[in-house]
Each structure stands twice: as C-alpha cells, then as structure tokens.
Amino acid sequence: MFYGWPILAVAALAMFGTGPGQSHLIGLFFDPMQAELGLSRTQISTAYGSATLIAALLLPRMGKLIDKFGPARMIWLIIPGVGLAAVATGLATGWLYLAFAFGALRFLGQGSLMMNCANITSQWFDRKRGFALGIMALGFPISIAIHPPLTQWLIAELGWRDAWIALGIITTLTLLPPALLFLHNRPEDVGLQPDGDSNAPSQTSGPKLGGFTKAEALKMPAFYILVAGMFCMSLLMTALHVEFTAILKSQGLQKDVAAAMFTVTGVTAALMMPVIGRLLDTVPTKWMFFLGLIIQSASLVSVSLTSDTATAVIFGVIFGINNAITMTYVGYLWPRYFGRRHLGEIQGTGQMILIVGASIGPLPLAWAIDNWGNYDSMLQILALGPLAVALIVALFLPAPNPPAGN
Fold first, then answer.
1. What is the model's pLDDT at position 202?
2. Which of 47, 111, 113, 358 qualifies as a cystine partner to 238, CB 3.0-4.6 A?
3. How far apart are alpha carbons 82 and 113 in whole angstroms?
C-alpha cells in the first residue's frame, strides 16, 4: 500500500482538528462572551477581525518554516499550540485579551494547521492531488457537523470558559499521537514518489522537486487572479460561518433548527469534496474556479431569501457545496500553478491574503445588523463580488503550466 494514504488519513484528522480556530465554532461563543464581557456585537467582530488580520501577517513566515523543516515537523508543534490557545481563550477578561486569544486560535488553527495539512497532502500526491485534497478536506465538513453541537452542549453543561478548556484538551489528545506516529514530510525523503509511482529515486539522491520561486510567482498574473478569487471565497465563507445561526434566526427560524443547518452544510460538503477533487483532476482548472465563484454568490443570495425550514435546507446544501469547493481549492491551486519546490513560501503569502479577507468578512454583516437591523441587503450586495471575479477568471486566467517535477 502506498504510504501516502496513511499520511492523507492523518492530514484529514488534523483538518478536523482545526475546528477551535474556525469561524463555525468560534462564532458560537459570541453571544455568551458578549453577555459576560459587556461587549457589543461589533466590538466582538472587531476583536475577531483584527486578530485574524494580525495572524494572517505571520503566515508567510510559517510558509518559510514549512519549506525549511517540512510540514510534518510543523504539525507536531502546531497541534499542542492550538490546544493551549483554546485553553487560554477560556480565561479571557476583556476586549484586548480576547483579541490576542482569537489571534492565536486563527494563526495556529485556521491558518497554520490548515496550510500544513494541504502542504503535506500536495507533497505526497500529484496526478491524484485533487482527489487527495478532497479527501483531506473532509475533515472540515466533519468539523462543521460535529463541533457546533458538541460546543453548544459543552457551553450548556460547563459554561463558555470551561467549554474552551475542554476543547483544547480534546483537540490535543486526539491529534498529537497519530501525527507523531505516522507523518513524514515528502515521499522523496523515504525513497518514494508522489502517488506511489514506481522508479522512485533513492533516499541518497535527495528530493527532486520542480516549482517556481516566490519572486517568480509574484510576477505572474495568474497569482493575482487566484488570490482575488480565493480572497472573495475566504471573506464571504467566513462571514457566513460567523453569523450563520444569527442570520437564520433573524429569518424566523428557531435556534435549534438554525443550528441543525450546520449539519446539513457539513454532510453536503463531506459528500461533495471527493467529487470536487476528482473534477479538479479532470476538468480544466480555470472553469472549475469560475464555477466555484458562481456557487459562492448563490450561497449569499439563497440565505438572504431563506424564510422557513425548506428554504434553509436549500441554503444549507448550496453552502455545503461552496464549503467543499473553497476548502479543496485552497490546497489545490498553489501547487497546480506554481509547483512543489517552494510551495510553503508561496502558499504562506497567498494564505496571508486570504486570511486578511477572513478578518474583514464578519464586519459588513455585523455592521448591517447593528445599523440596518437585518442582514438581507448586505448579503445581496456582497454577492456581487464573486460574480465580478468570475468574469475576470473567465477572460484572463491562463491554464496552469508549472515546471516539471511539481
């Protein structure tokens, strides 16, 4: 059996473990934090957004560390860091402390751990990379399906502070042992090739990788088109995750019904991720990217039209497909266009820009509910962004042409 498959299984588990740093979990704490700490919704969203922005600025450095030490070693360090960040968040006393705690969660969980999971998967798979990343990304919808109800139960039973501490302990104990036991940086390091191809080079010959440097990538128009599209996806997906339950409640749904739509979204994404991954391996990348942006826009429009359980389920399914697309594309597009040799550094720079988008995402919706009293108009305005980028993709994005050995 190709050893890449156990690597992939651990990467998928680690992707699930990014939950404490993801919007769909952190957003569940906004109401109890707001009540106890005496903060407005906009103040909470500003703490979250500014922390996410600061965390994003550190990701290029993480990319350099990945290229230097390899994703396996970085994952070993990041997992206990996520656990400690969650425990520390449970001790928050005010806005500034909360911003720092959010920053640690976002940098380590949503940023660094996700980036390393995508990197190690891309290193072990080439021809099957889309499918492998689709499997790896399954950890995200499973998190969407499991973490919100688990978190709500922990908050109800323990209170929001002890719920954070419990999540930190559970995450570390679940992820760290398999990561230490099974992960290796690249197939070339152990005498193998991506996808388990034969005629592997010997370990003594060193890894034979191809790829553009970061400086070369930054001179290519494709880099900026990819960043623009994924910036939109990151910004708007984060906005919907943070305000997911609040939007549906404002549309007249009961709290438990609104929370159940997380499960609809998670199950849909889980079913679609392998399909999206396989399509990435067979359909031209340009048109897959175009389709993803159209579905992102459809998510925003559909939630603004939600009025009952049936329309909420329709939104949940569309948003689940959107999550499957976004989570798979984030790992797939960088090595597809720029190769593996300097993947960490290029990925870190791109990921920084995407998380800047995520840091901004919750603010328009928080402002809309504070000032307009509803989300609908802002959701429909935001839906125009992906449509504009989709037009640019259709007209200008070239086909990928990375160097050999990617």
1. 44
2. 358
3. 9
Residues 6+ apart with CB under 8 A from 91: 97, 161
Mean pLDDT for all residues in the chain: 87
AA letter at 102: F
Q: What is the pLDDT of residue 404?
A: 59
* pLDDT tens profile 220-249: 999 999 999 989 888 888 888 778 778 888
CATH 3.10.450.710 fits 4-190+208-396, yes or no: no
Query: What value does the CA radius of gyration of the chain take, rounded to a whole number of Å?
Result: 20
- Residue 279 phi, psi dihedral angles, 5° rounding: -65, -35
DSSP assignment, residue 211?
B
Cα–Cα distance, 246 to 41 (Å, whole number): 11
Q: 367-389 pLDDT, tens per residue? A: 888 888 888 889 989 999 999 99
DSSP 339: B
Alpha-helical (H) ranges within 159-182 are 160-182
**Maximum separation of any 2 CA atoms in the chain, in Å:** 65
Output the pLDDT for position 124: 93
Token output for 234: 């990151």
On whether the CB atoms of residues 366 and 243 are closer than 8 A, the answer is yes
Q: Kindly report the number of other CB atoms within 10 A of residue 142's CB atom.
A: 19
Domain boundaries, the chain: 4-190+208-396
| 6-41 pLDDT per residue, tens | 999 999 999 999 999 987 788 889 889 888 888 887
Helix and strand numbers, DSSP H then E, in the chain: 20, 0
**What is the C-alpha to C-alpha distance for residues 161 and 35, in angstroms, rounded to an integer?**
13
Question: In terms of C-beta distances under 8 Å and separation of at least 24 residues, what long-range contacts does 10-13 make, across chains too?
Answer: 10/178, 10/179, 10/182, 10/183, 11/117, 11/120, 11/121, 11/136, 11/139, 12/117, 12/135, 12/136, 12/137, 12/138, 12/139, 13/139, 13/174, 13/175, 13/178
pLDDT of residue 17: 93
The answer to whether 237 touches 296, Cβ cutoff 8 Å, is yes
Tokens of 31: 């109401």
Three state DSSP letters for 222-244: HHHHHHHHHHHHHHHHHHHHHCH
pTM of the model: 0.75
Q: Which residue has the tokens 């889309």?
A: 130
